[in-house]
Backbone:
């Protein structure tokens, strides 16, 4: 698809523009990693739907097929449990996929089993027209990846340092709620030079079918996303942004502009949307941006950045 | 969860499973459900008419692991069904005479459509394709579905063991030489649908094709089923000729479970 990209948020003025980790975004909404982020055509479409940036699915060195279905469980229309298994085409194929990207702010999510994998991953993407990286240190359902490395502050420090010394692009660290204290992990990321933190990833969860007595996901355990985790995410964003000097990107159960504003007040400088797409489709980006703008107008704020972390005052 | 109420053997490799599900019983032609085979798989399956009120049905050909598990289910066993999902075949008011082309199990999503065309009294020609005589599916069912309208049923077999020797597209080419249609509806292997599309385009005939891709979520959040910028589960599964024309990957490229592009052949 090579037609001229015409963004649907052109009418949005600078009110919603945010600068985060060296990136200038037309509005604070981003596509969360794990959702849809598989092809250039899809990235173009999501960007045109009004996302300020898009995060890819987590990319590993080698392709991963992922788990057998069922991999995604709809709990109601606002929460999901998934164990997709980090399926992705691998760094080589994905690098080719987005090699012609022109104007979409694509942030590549990377996943690896240890710090030594990251220089190889970065080598595949550093030369491309991308906005930066998000390091997935918090996928809760794949052995030796994601949360299994992200639960160890020392390993997190190693990875962040390694990534930072192998790229000049912005590096965002995605943290989650695991067995370690999220603040310790965030601190390790900040101390090692991360440019921003995304909080939070899905939270380890499962569902059992009561008629058969069987776990539903093929992997049995997966990650919970959507409205069920919103208030845990709000707490994490609040604690991290209040106590550490680093921009935080809020993620977890943002379905409405009210949710978005709550995250901003908690201290999020930008917002990631994912589960909401299941019920609202891609119009969620535009709807939430509009809602934030209306709120700012009503409350007499000139820029969205004015309300980031306002709740810290109390 | 639903109980399998009845099973019909359609061919040596295809069975139809009936179950009670009010939502699925009201599905539109071309819609699908994600069917859970406990501790085995979850598969997108086309929804068909049930045998009683509030019932629906799916037909499965044993091919891979999951479909064989589903095929081997017995009456009284339970499976999970979520849906119906996706868009559906559309019938425009101006349609008077239409051509349906169902190749192999691709006929399944066209069955509900056939019955609705019958109700609307639209002149219907249906081309059914199969490998061999044994695998000709639903021939009697579609005859029953079409009793109220002018219709023609053409069957092709690739080995020539029944009716016309050849492929559905051969029969399509022949009939288009002498007859005019308002539109073409098709489902089957993608390379066949691509041929159908190309032939229809040469006659400036509108097409609605029901596409298939590997799916995980079924609800438009994972993009495993993407073709270009389209999501087969949410934007499809039925695409019209305008959409197909801009779909560079249609008939050429699919993605494997990891998301890598693979050539269709």
Residues:
């Amino acid at each position: 698809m090579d037609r001229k990209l015409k963004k649907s948020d052109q009418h949005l003025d600078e009110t919603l523009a945010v600068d985060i980790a060296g990136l200038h975004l037309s509005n604070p909404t981003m596509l969360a990693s794990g959702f849809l982020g598989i092809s250039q055509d899809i990235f173009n479409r999501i960007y045109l739907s009004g996302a300020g940036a898009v995060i890819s699915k987590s990319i590993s060195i080698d392709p991963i097929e992922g788990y057998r279905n069922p991999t995604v469980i709809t709990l109601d229309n606002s929460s999901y449990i998934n164990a997709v298994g980090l399926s992705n085409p691998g760094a080589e194929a994905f690098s080719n996929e987005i090699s012609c990207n022109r104007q979409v702010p694509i942030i590549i999510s990377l996943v690896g089993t240890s710090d030594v994998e990251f220089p190889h991953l970065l080598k595949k993407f550093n030369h491309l027209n991308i906005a930066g990286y998000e390091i997935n240190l918090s996928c809760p359902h794949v052995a030796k990846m994601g949360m299994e490395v992200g639960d160890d502050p020392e390993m997190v420090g190693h990875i962040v340092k390694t990534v930072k010394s192998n790229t000049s692009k912005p590096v965002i660290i995605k943290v989650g709620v695991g067995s370690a204290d999220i603040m310790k992990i965030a601190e390790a990321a900040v101390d090692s030079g991360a440019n921003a933190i995304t909080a939070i990833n899905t939270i380890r969860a499962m569902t059992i079918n009561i008629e058969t007595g069987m776990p539903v996901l093929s992997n049995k355990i997966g990650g919970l996303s959507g409205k069920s985790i919103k208030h845990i995410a709000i707490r994490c964003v609040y604690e991290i942004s209040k106590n550490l000097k680093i921009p935080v990107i809020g993620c977890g159960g943002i379905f409405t502009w009210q949710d978005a504003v709550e995250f901003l007040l908690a201290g999020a400088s930008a917002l990631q949307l994912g589960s909401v797409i299941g019920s609202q489709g891609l119009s969620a980006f535009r709807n939430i941006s509009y809602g934030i703008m209306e709120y700012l107008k009503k409350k007499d704020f000139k820029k969205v950045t004015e309300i980031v972390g306002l709740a810290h005052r109390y | 969860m639903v109980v399998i109420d009845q099973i019909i053997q359609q061919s040596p490799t295809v069975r139809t499973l009936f179950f009670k599900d009010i939502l699925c019983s009201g599905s539109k032609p071309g819609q699908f459900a994600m069917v859970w085979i406990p501790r085995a798989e979850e598969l997108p399956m086309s929804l068909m008419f049930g045998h009683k009120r509030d019932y629906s049905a799916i037909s499965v050909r044993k091919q891979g692991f999951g479909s064989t598990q589903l095929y081997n289910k017995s009456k009284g066993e339970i499976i999970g069904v979520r849906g119906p999902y996706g868009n559906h075949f559309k019938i425009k008011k101006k349609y008077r005479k239409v051509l349906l082309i169902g190749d192999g199990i691709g006929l399944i999503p066209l069955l509900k459509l056939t019955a609705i065309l019958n109700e609307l009294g639209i002149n219907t020609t249906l081309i059914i394709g199969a490998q061999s005589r044994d695998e000709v599916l639903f021939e009697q069912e579609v005859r029953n579905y079409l009793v109220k309208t002018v219709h023609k049923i053409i069957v092709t077999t690739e080995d020539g063991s029944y009716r016309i020797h050849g492929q559905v597209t051969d029969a399509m080419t022949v009939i288009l030489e002498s007859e005019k249609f308002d539109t073409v509806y098709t489902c089957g292997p993608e390379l066949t649908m691509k041929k159908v599309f190309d032939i229809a385009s040469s006659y400036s005939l509108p097409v609605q094709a029901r596409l298939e891709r590997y799916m995980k979520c079924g609800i438009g959040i994972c993009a495993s089923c993407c073709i270009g910028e389209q999501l087969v589960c949410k934007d499809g599964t039925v695409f019209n000729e305008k959409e197909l024309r801009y779909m560079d990957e249609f008939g050429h490229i699919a993605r494997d479970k990891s998301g890598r592009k693979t050539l269709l052949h």
The longest helix of chain B spans residues 190-202. The first strand of chain B starts at residue 2 and ends at 9.
